[in-house]
């Protein structure tokens, strides 16, 4: 947990891995996720590296795995998750896995091909049987017709007038969507010298490709002449019709139909055996494929890391470099020794000096991951920079709750987050693929604290679904006012609004024990009172939040040895911020403590005092809060203005003097900071710029070039940004006041327009119960949709802005990069 406040110490290490044990060493490092490897072959093409052949074999296996997985999905099966922890297989197992995979793929292709062929043959037999079994009867000749076809028997009884005429037949089946077009084209192309009969099959036949049941149209066409027969065959071929031989005699057709049915039964038996064998092959695939996929992905990842290593001059070991936390070095060394023990030569790891900025390593858990994600979305902190996440755990939910304060709404959010926290270990919850749900689930602890803090601020505002609650007795007494003021019935009839005067004895008994007095919910000046209270509260919270950010910068300067910044930057910033806006906070608190309810009417205006402070003037009508107030205000303004040139010129001039002194031939080496990685020299010397200089810079003082104009320009930008930011950022915190009032008013409007209407609709118990059911459902739905989701998202975004812009820019650069250790966590 100590790394949460500042990133852990990360060092650059060098590995010497024996060639025979390099694979096992890297595999064990991937299981533990301790080191991030650097590419030592950046100038070498990916096709010229040592282990490119092994990587290609793994990729070919992955292609075969995709084919097997697609076959399993096609059969309607699901691959089970791999059981247990699977290690990367030894290189010698790659050939075995490849042979078994190829054998399974070959069997699947053969069985699937046989299945398709048998299904196609069975489909042809079923279509042929359907054509012969439909019972088409066509007349020999066609009379003039209005439609396209005649549905009368084709052959005349024996001894008819056309008994010597030769009639030919074409029988087959076509898809129903093509039947009408086929019939129309046949009639037009043959000019009516044919008679066709189309009938829909009584039973649906299974499609051999998709396996879905489909209806077919059978047809029987009689024609005269060879030329017309050629036209009919060409047309049926164009429509992809299935054409079958047609026997004219009834007995012959019945015999053929029996033979087709017998062949269909035999084919169905063979197809059943084929499908049973296919299910057996798919069962083996289901059993073997999941662990193979994990193992091959791990093996491929190991070879990709080995491709980043360089070969030693003797070709006996691989040399690798990587970043690692210094606290993990003993574990790293022990793992390498255990992994290389079988090779007879132990792997070696040792620290090496580095002039590059190391990556940032901050370890998180389930609770802190969401808050660290908020900070990292702004920017990953630089190496060993102060991490805002621990403070964000408290300040972010609190500022959100200031804008979202309501006991009822906060309790709903808290219960929703609590349900996700309690169900976080369930596999179904983790495996949910809905993107919105994953967003809520990843921030469940953040939502939990946001709801809890909203309940707290809701008690302070004394609001529960916009309704005030009387937990303690009110500090205002209406009875005392009525007794001492002589309110009569005539007075009450003439004055619909009554005023409670705190100057009257016994009317104001004292402040409410916790939060806002519930009597204010009945007052017509309720909004005016809350405006004043929440506006001043926002200023106090904002100045406190920004001051805390400036103070956190002190820890950065002390850690990196930049002592001059404490006097030349941090101290002027604190004087400027506290001398102006800290004084405003002091006036607010002083007025609260010194002005009572009885003297509220004659209390001085803080706004006029603050304006006169910058004008160096005095308002006769606005009395002072304390003796000597004008002198104190003038001194604070002068002192704040005096810090501007110090903030602008102090650091550049000091760095110029420091650079000149470092160029003198003193005969001693430049001092490095305590880590040996980051020194405390000027960042502009190394070309980083003013912002980067706050954390420290890299580079050699003797080789660096100091440019005073660049340092002055960066420092001028920082000075202008801070001085103007103190004004704009303080005003930005007024969004706490605005959104808090907006949330309260929306809640009040929703209650007045929905629930209050329902409560007034029925006076009888039964009628009220029936009416309130749909009204409460509408009220609950609107509360969740508008006040929880929309207003909650708005308050979340505003709290996010206050942390990123107003708080973190006082001390946090966020220009680093994360430590990304080589790990198999994603493959598992």
UniProtKB/TrEMBL annotation:
MF terms (GO), sorted A to Z: ATPase binding; proton-transporting ATPase activity, rotational mechanism
* PROSITE patterns, sorted: PROKAR_LIPOPROTEIN
Give yes or no: UniProt keyword Lipid metabolism: no
GO terms in the biological process aspect are: vacuolar acidification
Give the signal sequence positions. none
| Repeat in keyword set | no
The alphabetized UniProt keywords are: Hydrogen ion transport, Ion transport, Membrane, Transmembrane, Transmembrane helix, Transport
Q: Name where it mostly resides.
A: membrane
Q: A Pfam family matched by this chain, by name?
A: V_ATPase_I
Query: Which parts of the chain span the membrane according to its record?
Result: 398-423, 444-461, 512-530, 537-555, 575-593, 600-619, 631-655, 765-790
Please provide one cellular component term from the Gene Ontology annotations of this protein: vacuolar proton-transporting V-type ATPase, V0 domain
Q: How does it sit in the membrane?
A: Multi-pass membrane protein
Please give the residue ranges the record annotates as the region Disordered.
Answer: 665-688
Q: Give compartment(s).
A: Membrane
- What does the UniProt function comment say about this protein? Essential component of the vacuolar proton pump (V-ATPase), a multimeric enzyme that catalyzes the translocation of protons across the membranes. Required for assembly and activity of the V-ATPase.
Family recorded in the similarity comment: Belongs to the V-ATPase 116 kDa subunit family.
Name of the protein in question: V-type proton ATPase subunit a
Question: Which organism is the protein's source?
Answer: Zalophus californianus (California sealion)
Lineage runs:
Eukaryota, Metazoa, Chordata, Craniata, Vertebrata
């Amino acid at each position: 947990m100590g790394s949460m406040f500042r990133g852990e110490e990360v060092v650059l290490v060098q590995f010497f891995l024996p060639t025979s044990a390099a694979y096992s060493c890297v595999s064990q490092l991937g299981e533990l996720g301790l080191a991030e490897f650097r590419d030592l072959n950046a100038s070498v093409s990916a096709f010229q590296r040592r282990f490119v052949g092994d990587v290609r074999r793994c990729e070919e296996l992955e292609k075969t795995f995709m084919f097997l997985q697609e076959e399993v999905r096609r059969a309607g099966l699901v691959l089970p998750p791999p059981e247990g922890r699977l290690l990367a297989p030894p290189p010698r197992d790659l050939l075995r896995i490849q042979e078994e995979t190829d054998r399974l793929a070959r069997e699947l292709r053969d069985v699937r091909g046989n299945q398709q062929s048998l299904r196609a043959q069975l489909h042809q037999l079923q279509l042929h049987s359907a054509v012969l079994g439909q019972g088409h009867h066509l007349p020999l000749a066609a009379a003039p017709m209005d439609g396209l076809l005649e549905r009368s028997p084709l052959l005349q009884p024996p001894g008819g007038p056309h008994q010597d005429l030769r009639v030919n037949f074409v029988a087959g089946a076509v898809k129903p969507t093509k039947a009408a077009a086929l019939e129309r084209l046949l009639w037009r192309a043959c000019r009516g010298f044919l008679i066709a009969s189309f009938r829909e099959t009584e039973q649906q036949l299974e499609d051999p490709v998709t396996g879905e049941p489909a209806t077919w149209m059978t047809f029987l066409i009689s024609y005269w002449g060879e030329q017309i027969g050629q036209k009919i065959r060409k047309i049926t071929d164009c429509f992809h019709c299935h054409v079958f031989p047609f026997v004219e005699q009834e007995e012959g057709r019945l015999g053929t139909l029996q033979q087709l049915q017998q062949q269909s039964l035999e084919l169905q038996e063979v197809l059943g055996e084929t499908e049973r064998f296919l299910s057996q092959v798919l069962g083996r695939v289901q059993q073997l494929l999941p662990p193979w996929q994990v193992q091959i992905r791990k093996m491929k990842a190991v070879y990709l890391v080995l491709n980043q290593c360089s070969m030693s001059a003797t070709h006996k070991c691989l040399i690798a470099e990587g970043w690692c936390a210094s606290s993990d070095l003993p574990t790293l060394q022990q793992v390498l020794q255990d992994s290389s023990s079988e090779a007879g030569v132990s792997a070696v790891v040792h620290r090496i000096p580095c002039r590059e900025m190391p990556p940032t390593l901050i370890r998180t858990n389930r609770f802190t991951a969401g808050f660290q994600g908020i900070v990292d979305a702004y920017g990953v902190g630089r190496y060993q920079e102060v991490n805002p996440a621990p403070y964000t755990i408290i300040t972010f939910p609190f500022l959100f709750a200031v804008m979202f304060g309501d006991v009822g709404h906060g309790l709903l959010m808290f219960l929703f987050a609590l349900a996700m926290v309690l169900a976080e270990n369930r596999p179904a919850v983790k495996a949910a693929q809905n993107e919105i749900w994953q967003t809520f689930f990843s921030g469940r602890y953040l939502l939990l604290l946001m709801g809890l803090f909203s309940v707290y601020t809701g008690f302070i505002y004394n609001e529960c679904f916009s309704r005030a609650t009387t937990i303690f007795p009110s500090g205002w007494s209406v009875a005392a006012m009525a007794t001492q003021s002589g309110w009569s019935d005539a007075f009450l009839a003439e004055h619909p609004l009554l005023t409670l005067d705190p100057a009257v004895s016994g009317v104001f008994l004292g402040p409410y024990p916790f939060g806002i007095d519930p009597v204010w919910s009945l007052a017509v000046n309720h909004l005016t009172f809350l405006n004043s209270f929440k506006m001043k509260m926002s200023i106090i919270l904002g100045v406190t939040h920004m001051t805390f950010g400036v103070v956190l910068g002190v820890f950065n300067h002390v850690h990196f040895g930049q002592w001059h910044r404490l006097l030349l930057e941090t101290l002027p910033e604190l004087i400027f911020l506290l001398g102006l806006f800290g004084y405003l906070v002091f006036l607010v608190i002083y007025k609260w403590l010194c002005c009572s309810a009885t003297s509220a009417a004659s209390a001085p205006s803080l706004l006029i005092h603050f304006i006169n402070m910058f004008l160096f003037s005095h308002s006769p009508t606005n009395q002072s809060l304390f003796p000597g107030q004008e002198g104190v205000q003038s001194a604070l303004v002068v002192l704040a203005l005096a810090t501007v040139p110090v903030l602008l010129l102090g650091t550049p001039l000091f760095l110029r003097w420091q650079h000149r002194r470092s160029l003198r031939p003193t005969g001693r080496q430049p001092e490095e900071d305590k880590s040996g990685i980051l020194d405390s020299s000027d960042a502009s010397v190394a070309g980083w710029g003013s912002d980067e200089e706050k954390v420290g810079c890299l580079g050699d003082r003797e080789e660096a070039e100091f440019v005073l104009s660049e340092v002055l320009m960066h420092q001028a930008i920082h000075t202008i940004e801070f001085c103007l930011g103190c004004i704009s950022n303080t005003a930005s915190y007024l969004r706490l006041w605005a959104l808090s009032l907006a949330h309260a008013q929306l809640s009040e409007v929703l209650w007045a327009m929905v629930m209050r209407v329902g409560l007034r609709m029925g006076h009888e118990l039964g009628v009220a119960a029936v009416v309130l059911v749909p009204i409460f459902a509408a009220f609950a739905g609107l509360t969740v949709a508008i006040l929880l989701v929309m207003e909650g998202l708005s308050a979340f975004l505003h709290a996010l802005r206050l942390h990123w812009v107003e708080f973190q820019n006082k001390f946090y650069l966020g220009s680093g990069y994360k430590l990304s250790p080589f790990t198999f966590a994603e493959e598992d």
